[in-house]
Amino acid sequence: MKLNKFNRFIAMTLLSLALLVLPIFSKVDNIKLYYVGIIILILITIYRIVYDEKFEQRFYERWQKNRKQGFKINVVREGLRALVFMIMVVGISQFLVNGHTPWEIVLSLASNTSVWIMIVLFLLILSLIIGVVALYENDKRYKRIFYNIKNNN
Question: What string of H, E and C letters represents the secondary structure of the chain?
């Protein structure tokens, strides 16, 4: 189900307000960076909502080429994208909220090899699952755009 622009603006506004008041209820170590990040995230989201048609067209053209490359390559591509995204979100949130640098996190995990191996395996399996799901979701999005273009012409 795709929401229209007005509903997405309403949802974005409510979620943005929640992120802006979150430090009132929870401790945030790097409050200035947190608010700078939230403001940048809000601006990116507004840009994404306003120029949705351009993003859809760009996705359509890119996915038209990518889907010809086959299942395995697309699953690996989407899985790697998900893996990088998960690592970035955890790293940034740990830095902003708890004040831990990525290096500190790696050093604390390096002391316990079995935990390190379990985390890596968990992330790889999760990214593989997300890669498969993303492949089908992207294909569904491609077909929706294709039929919209076909019906409008």
Answer: CCCCHHHHHHHHHHHHHHHHHHHHHCCCCCHHHHHHHHHHHHHHHHHHHHCHHHHHHHHHHHHHHHHHHCHHHHHHHHHHHHHHHHHHHHHHHHHHHHCCCHHHHHHHHHCCHHHHHHHHHHHHHHHHHHHHHHHHHHHHHHHHHHHHHHHHC
Tokens of residue 118, six digits: 């379990």
pLDDT in tens, 90-127: 888 888 888 888 888 878 777 778 888 898 899 999 99
Retrieve residue 91's tokens.
Answer: 């790293």
pTM: predicted TM-score of the whole model, two decimal places: 0.79
